[in-house]
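Honest question from a wet-lab person: if I give you the sequences of every part of a complex, can you actually get the arrangement of the whole thing, not just the pieces? Trying it with mine:
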Amino acid sequence: MEFFKGIDKIEYEGSKSKNDLSFKYYNPEEVILGKKMKEHLKFAMSYWHTLTGGGMDPFGEQTIIRSWDTLNPMERAKARVKAGFEFMEKLGIEYFCFHDKDIAPEADTLEEYFKNLDEIVDEIEKEMKRTGIKLLWGTSNMFSNRRFVHGAATTCNADVFAWGAAQVKKALEITKRLNGSGYVFWGGREGYETLLNTDMGLELDNLARMLSFAKEYANEIGFIGQFYIEPKPKEPTKHQYDFDSGTVIGFLRKYNLDKDFKLNIEANHATLAGHTFQHELRVARINDMLGSVDANMGDTLLGWDTDQFPTNIYDSTLAMYEILMDGGFKEGGLNFDSKLRRASIDVEDMFFAYIAGMDTFAKGLKIAAKLYEDKVFENIIKERYSSFDTGIGKKIVNKEVGLKELSDYALGLKEIKNTSGNQEKLEMILNQYILG
Amino acid sequence: MEFFKGIDKIEYEGSKSKNDLSFKYYNPEEVILGKKMKEHLKFAMSYWHTLTGGGMDPFGEQTIIRSWDTLNPMERAKARVKAGFEFMEKLGIEYFCFHDKDIAPEADTLEEYFKNLDEIVDEIEKEMKRTGIKLLWGTSNMFSNRRFVHGAATTCNADVFAWGAAQVKKALEITKRLNGSGYVFWGGREGYETLLNTDMGLELDNLARMLSFAKEYANEIGFIGQFYIEPKPKEPTKHQYDFDSGTVIGFLRKYNLDKDFKLNIEANHATLAGHTFQHELRVARINDMLGSVDANMGDTLLGWDTDQFPTNIYDSTLAMYEILMDGGFKEGGLNFDSKLRRASIDVEDMFFAYIAGMDTFAKGLKIAAKLYEDKVFENIIKERYSSFDTGIGKKIVNKEVGLKELSDYALGLKEIKNTSGNQEKLEMILNQYILG
Amino acid sequence: MEFFKGIDKIEYEGSKSKNDLSFKYYNPEEVILGKKMKEHLKFAMSYWHTLTGGGMDPFGEQTIIRSWDTLNPMERAKARVKAGFEFMEKLGIEYFCFHDKDIAPEADTLEEYFKNLDEIVDEIEKEMKRTGIKLLWGTSNMFSNRRFVHGAATTCNADVFAWGAAQVKKALEITKRLNGSGYVFWGGREGYETLLNTDMGLELDNLARMLSFAKEYANEIGFIGQFYIEPKPKEPTKHQYDFDSGTVIGFLRKYNLDKDFKLNIEANHATLAGHTFQHELRVARINDMLGSVDANMGDTLLGWDTDQFPTNIYDSTLAMYEILMDGGFKEGGLNFDSKLRRASIDVEDMFFAYIAGMDTFAKGLKIAAKLYEDKVFENIIKERYSSFDTGIGKKIVNKEVGLKELSDYALGLKEIKNTSGNQEKLEMILNQYILG
Amino acid sequence: MEFFKGIDKIEYEGSKSKNDLSFKYYNPEEVILGKKMKEHLKFAMSYWHTLTGGGMDPFGEQTIIRSWDTLNPMERAKARVKAGFEFMEKLGIEYFCFHDKDIAPEADTLEEYFKNLDEIVDEIEKEMKRTGIKLLWGTSNMFSNRRFVHGAATTCNADVFAWGAAQVKKALEITKRLNGSGYVFWGGREGYETLLNTDMGLELDNLARMLSFAKEYANEIGFIGQFYIEPKPKEPTKHQYDFDSGTVIGFLRKYNLDKDFKLNIEANHATLAGHTFQHELRVARINDMLGSVDANMGDTLLGWDTDQFPTNIYDSTLAMYEILMDGGFKEGGLNFDSKLRRASIDVEDMFFAYIAGMDTFAKGLKIAAKLYEDKVFENIIKERYSSFDTGIGKKIVNKEVGLKELSDYALGLKEIKNTSGNQEKLEMILNQYILG
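Yes, you can. This is the full assembly:
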């Protein structure tokens, strides 16, 4: 059965095309810096937003209704598998990501739930074989069910912790079985609502314990994918422990988990924490923790996770720039953790939205590659910090001096001469690269 | 010479007093939980806002004019010493804090600047002896002068780094000489304006180097006070590296500085980072890094550091609660990093403002002490997390289980029963303690 | 059938009571400024949050489950009527508010839906007669159903406008039948998602048309209750047309509707627009448009409508102060548009939360009444602006001068002397009134 | 004397130029939609940021030092005139804007101040004649001086009101003398710091009085330029009365000033109020109040007015689109109310920054013109709202129906069919126009 009738494989037609169902900038086989576009970008479909989302918001019911919505739960789950793979094939997307709960219905007992999962994983496996599409990462949803009202790893209820552990175990097994190249922890309820009833110390220790347990079990079963933490500051809980890259890296260091985890950076989570997308990528990069990316965009004038499809060329350019500077993706990729606007109710909108996101990142990659090749910013930075390459600067870097020597040096200085930061010029140059 | 003529020593007159120049709640000798109020609170005057501030803002000139403003720089500096100590005596404040630049005028050369500093430190020392008032902490201002336009420890200019180092050395020596119980780093320019010209990795490494140099020099000269970092997220630079407690603790761990530094938490910096004051104190507390406090409040509907005198009873109560839970201040105290509103132009306003802040914290202490004694929240928390004291919970905490055992346990669970978080009830109880 | 077994009528027990199910400050019959507390406060139960809410959020399913949740739609609707009135009786709440959709299930056709409504309105009417409880205001939900995806009055689809009009007509008729003293428009979808596809001019004209139609129909059927607009800035749509008080008042003036509508001010909507609750009340008050109040509170560190039960004494005091200054409520009252935290899952939490809110406003009223009686702020304000009572100031106010006369006057001034704003002193005095 | 030695007239060199001191997109004589680029854009230099700014911020002293900074006040003022006109000539900018205070030093008396102003206006007039450069608008700075600590038109001190009136009178006379095509009111201190001491009603009435006085005096002296209000929400005061376009328009309507004033929209003020730049322009446009534009950009992750040079192509495109839809500028233009970053300390940075801003708007104009010509969004909007062109929709628009007829119509509807909003597609198309 074909789910997206009337929509053919989306082809690259170039920037002048008037065909809304074509790529204007994404040309998967085009070689950029010696690598194919598609290998640079490693686009992934998010199972949840794409196949289970419906446009609901806190003030309104489902607006987006798909053909599979009327089926019974297991049939619906199977239809979604087929629809998802058809969708990826038509877009030429080679990866996907999922939570356990996205792919199969929960059940009254864990046992039954796991059976449901296994049944659907069979279907997914078949489709993966048929199409060659790969699993970028798996994860477990430990935030939607009411059981996790007080958290999963950071719950006050040991039974709930155990339940979460069981889900992680199962999701890890599935991810391994499907050859997933990574596994993500996003702590949707790992935070607090009010400090008045919260033992923050115990909760954080327990969070670290859950991560250790997961890593140990992965070793046991031979899962060699990369583990990731996905930072987010303050939704749904008032305070989420994985606030931002800086916080998460500090947390991992505290519990000696920093060798075992990298970060899955989401654009909209960055802005909710008061950072740019590029900032979060940069922080991860300089700590050697840039793992994977959730590609979307937020609305910085709104205070919640809008998870919009990314269509801002500045963001995609600077993100791809950081990724290129990091040597490109290894296990990670660009997962569209993006959802259709509530009012984008047509099936075609799914395609328009992915095309918009893929084109924006493709064009961003091309611009970033040019910036990278021309060493536009790198040369400026090299020059700007060159006083640390020789003389007193070098001694500082090598810690061959202390306050005393530095003070003596400063006392001997005739004048201090700073150079301009030239921010406006740099923004102008960036614009020239973007606008052509 | 008396600077605040007509204003006598501010006395405690109780909550019914109609005398605006009296304390309504702050009764310094009153014993709370076995310790005098003044020993719990350890109020400090901030030299800068109190003695050098003038109500300027980005859109307007000085509005607050003091009698010393017409003097020449060194005379003005000396008058401020006298005025400051008179002010503290009249308020019964036993500590103060300062930046090098607050106390003496900068000069054309470092040498001259240091001479100016020494001359004023002599005056301060005399006043300290005369009054018994102590130095809570010292610091160096490495952000106002144009020299630090690109940062001090994180500058791109090695000469500027050296200059900053010289200032830190001098400020450390002064702090030691004045028996300061601590030394603070607030990195007013340690951040970036745009990533396009920034080598974040080098900048952070250099920041850590400066901190190491300071610690080493302190050891060398026998300064045994506590070192602090003061987190702040995004002012004046677009991104300040010491974003919040979580970020700073992670940074200190990365560079093995976490044993040498604690945090100086500022209320308004907490809210600018998207956190409550209590949150930042809690994070510091559970990491054993709660050092000292900058007492003020911000306006959460405004996006900049308003540094208002703290008059919110919820904030002062919950702050004092965290401090009591931490065992009270050791080297630290409550420094009023608070400035008069631009329109509070009278000399009396200085007193009103400090009285307002001191009373708010005094009343907050009394309420917090009652909450602490009654174990209001502690008992609730103990009960709430009790499932981790026995059975499977205890095994989790002791890491005697792994995913497999937890999964087996979860598969055997009949049902999961969560208890209510009772947030509204807890807020009601808190109100009862506050409102009497 | 009793829904809240084991919970008796909530009684006033005073501020020392340890009984969580008692009022500490709300003493309904106590006379304040010549009027009973309950007449000042006019508390109302919100039908939606109280009876249909379940703790859902964008990341999680229902956590709060009531006994009626398993019944079929019409039986559930009837049970809610009984439960709601039992709840109000036990709390001594004398008013309620509802949307059409809260009380009866929607149906496939409008006709059927209206029949459902009528059937439930019969039940409500009976309970109102039995208990004496009154309807504060009614409204129509024109935002949850997918039909309103592009708005109701501001939709791009004329059929949807008509549907909305039919709902308003019905809701008006119900409100009249139940003797409601008001009718509210909250435009949950009256805004836009993107300007790229929006005809803002037509949408606003149509919004005004809907309001005119409603007013005309009210006149026709003899509904004499007060009409209100409830401002909110940006949720659920990116931009809601009824942004804040200032915007709404301007809109009403533009379309000559300012005589027919007042405002229903919600605390959390105020803060989302960047204003304090008091600000919005003040703006409404000075424009003679303060109608009714949605009592809740938001979290100013979070960017969405948290609709928390109001437990902040500053907010309730200053709100009641504005209401007293406005002469007290006329047709309006204090509706608890507040919802339980997702983790407050017990039936008792409903009571705790309302008690917390009612006590906070009762105490706020008492403090505000004292401020009002003592003319604390009024005397200060009178003095502060007294230069406009005589001389040149009076001439300005009377427009007896122009720029020329004023310039001549200014040229003749020797000096300008401003007085202090004394903000910190005023905050201290406010604290004294609050803390006793 | 030449102030910008070594910098020649900036020429258009096209988008491939590597010359940082050339225009890449701004080709002043190029004809777009039948009009020259320079006539569409009407760029203006802001006297203040460009000639008097120095990179100060609340935490740091002046970093940007110009050759004229060492001169005495009147000589400095004269040098700035020369420098400003040289700067405009070299950039090909044909307009400028100023506050009284920007051009001449304040003095001890008003009389002396006015004399200073007259002396400098003579110089400006000469330069205007020499160069043909025109005055876009004038204004009076009634916020920097300490005298305005409580406001100017909204002060509590009638003498200050009078002083402000004298300044407005003088600034109006100067603006008339210099043939200014407009006069702006930006109420930098027209707001409040705390409601506790504020008579909001009187303050707003007085604000309206000042505006009336100005309009009347303009009539008297025959000044026929356009009056503008510039909205801004919350800086420097806690709440500025001219919050945003919606608020200002409502205010003007209340006082019957809406025929006499238009709006001067600033990009960064829009975002501080929680709106996009385009939103504020649109609101002004549909109310026929779009007057002039302050071109800059803010940082939506920061909470204060950063006044950055505008380099975001989305903003400039959508702004120019609204301006084209409004029929282009009449009396207004694009004033760069933008300041150099604190670290952009070179003279060249002045040029880089203006070039960046002018290029961004030039390119934005070209893209907007193409969108306008192709009726990209207009056709979509026309189709989207077409149900209001016939049938029931037309009757709604013509108010030929009421709730009763609409309800009857709705009861007869079989189903409601909404079309997709296609937001992602529209964003993709916009990207295609931008990226080429």
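Two things worth pointing out. The interface with chain A takes residues 55-63, 143-146, 148-150, 188-189, 193-194, 234-236, 238, 272, 299, 301-305, 341-343, 345 of chain C (CB under 8 Å). The mean pLDDT of chain C is 98.
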